[in-house]
Task: inverse folding
C-alpha cells in the first residue's frame, strides 16, 4: 500500500508540473463553468414546455396544466439564469464584470428567450405536419413526437437558435451537440430554419452555422450543407460559408452542397450523392450521370447492363 501511495504521489507531482506549462489546456478556471447535466436538464424541460401534453412530469405531483407549466418554468428560469451567468464572462464585453451585473443580464436574456416559446411552437407545429405529410411510414403524429430523431433535432435546433441570436455563449452549442450525440444529426445553432422543415431518417446529416433554409424543405440522411473550404480558419468567422436553400427544395441522401455563395433555387431537387459547389437554378433536377447496374446470370449468360441515366426516378430511392 505504501508503494502504491508513493507512486500516486509521484504521478500527482508529474501532473502538477505539466499543468504549469502555460498552455490553454493548463488554464485553471477560477470562476464557474457550465454544467453539462444541468444544460441537458434545461433542454429536456424546454421540450416539455413545447409539448405540454406529451410527457408526464415525474418530478412534480401536479394535476393541472397551469401548475405543471408554472413549476417547469420556475425550474427552467432558475437553472438557465444560473448557467447563463456562468458563461457570460466568455464574451469579451463581460470579462471582469461583477456577479450582480452578470446575474441581471442573465435574467434579462432568460426571460427574453422564454418569450420566444410561442413562436417556436408555431414553427414546430408546421414541422410536425411536414413529417406526417412527407412520410408514409408515420402512422400518427404522436409517433413522430415520441420517436423521430429528426423531430428531436429540429426542436433542439430551434430552441438553441433563439439563445444563439441573443448572444448566449456555449449553451446553444451544448444543446445541439447533445441532440447530435442522440440522433446523429448535426445542426449548428446558428442555422436559420424556415417552416415545414422535414428531416427523414437523419443519420449523418451536417448543417453548418451560416446555412439558411427556406420553407417546405425536405432533407434525407447523409446530407451535408457545408463550407467549401475552412482553410482560412478563424479569419472566416462571421462570414457566410454555408449554402442557402430556397423554398420547396428536396435533397436526397448523401448529397453535399457547399459554399456560402451557393444557392439552391426554389423547387429544385438534388439527387443522391450529388456534389454541388455552385448555385442551382429554381426548378432544376440535379442527378449524377451514368448510373448503372451490372447483372451476372452465371457462366451461361452474358452480363447485362441497365443504365439509370435516363430514368426519371432513380435518385428518389432512399
Result:
Amino acid at each position: 500500500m505504501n508503494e502504491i501511495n508513493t507512486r500516486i504521489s509521484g504521478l500527482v507531482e508529474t501532473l502538477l508540473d505539466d499543468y504549469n506549462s502555460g498552455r490553454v489546456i493548463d488554464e485553471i478556471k477560477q470562476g464557474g463553468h457550465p454544467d453539462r447535466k444541468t444544460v441537458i436538464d434545461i433542454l429536456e424541460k424546454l421540450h416539455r414546455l413545447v409539448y405540454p401534453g406529451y410527457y408526464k412530469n415525474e418530478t412534480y405531483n401536479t394535476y393541472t396544466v397551469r401548475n405543471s407549466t408554472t413549476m417547469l418554468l420556475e425550474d427552467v428560469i432558475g437553472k438557465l439564469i444560473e448557467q447563463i451567468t456562468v458563461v457570460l464572462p466568455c464574451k469579451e464585453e463581460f470579462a471582469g464584470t461583477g456577479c450582480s451585473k452578470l446575474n441581471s443580464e442573465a435574467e434579462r436574456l432568460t426571460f427574453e428567450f422564454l418569450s420566444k416559446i410561442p413562436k417556436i411552437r408555431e414553427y414546430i407545429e408546421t414541422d410536425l405536419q411536414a413529417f406526417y405529410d412527407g412520410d408514409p411510414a408515420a402512422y400518427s403524429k404522436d409517433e413522430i413526437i415520441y420517436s423521430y430523431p429528426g423531430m428531436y433535432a429540429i426542436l433542439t435546433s430551434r430552441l438553441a437558435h433563439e439563445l444563439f441570436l441573443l448572444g448566449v455563449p456555449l449553451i446553444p452549442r451544448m444543446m445541439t451537440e447533445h441532440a447530435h450525440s442522440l440522433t446523429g444529426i448535426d445542426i449548428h445553432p446558428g442555422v436559420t430554419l424556415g417552416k415545414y422543415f422535414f428531416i427523414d431518417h437523419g443519420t449523418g446529416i451536417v448543417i453548418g452555422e451560416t446555412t439558411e433554409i427556406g420553407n417546405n424543405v425536405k432533407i434525407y440522411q447523409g446530407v451535408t450543407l457545408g463550407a467549401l473550404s475552412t482553410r482560412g480558419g478563424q479569419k472566416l468567422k462571421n462570414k457566410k460559408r454555408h449554402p442557402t436553400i430556397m423554398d420547396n427544395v428536396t435533397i436526397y441522401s448523401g448529397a453535399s452542397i457547399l459554399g456560402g455563395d451557393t444557392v439552391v433555387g426554389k423547387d429544385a431537387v438534388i439527387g443522391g450523392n450529388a456534389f454541388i459547389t455552385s448555385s442551382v437554378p429554381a426548378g432544376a433536377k440535379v442527378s449524377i450521370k451514368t448510373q448503372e447496374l451490372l447483372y451476372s446470370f452465371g457462366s451461361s449468360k452474358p452480363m447485362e447492363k441497365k443504365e439509370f441515366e435516363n430514368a426519371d426516378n432513380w435518385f428518389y430511392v432512399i
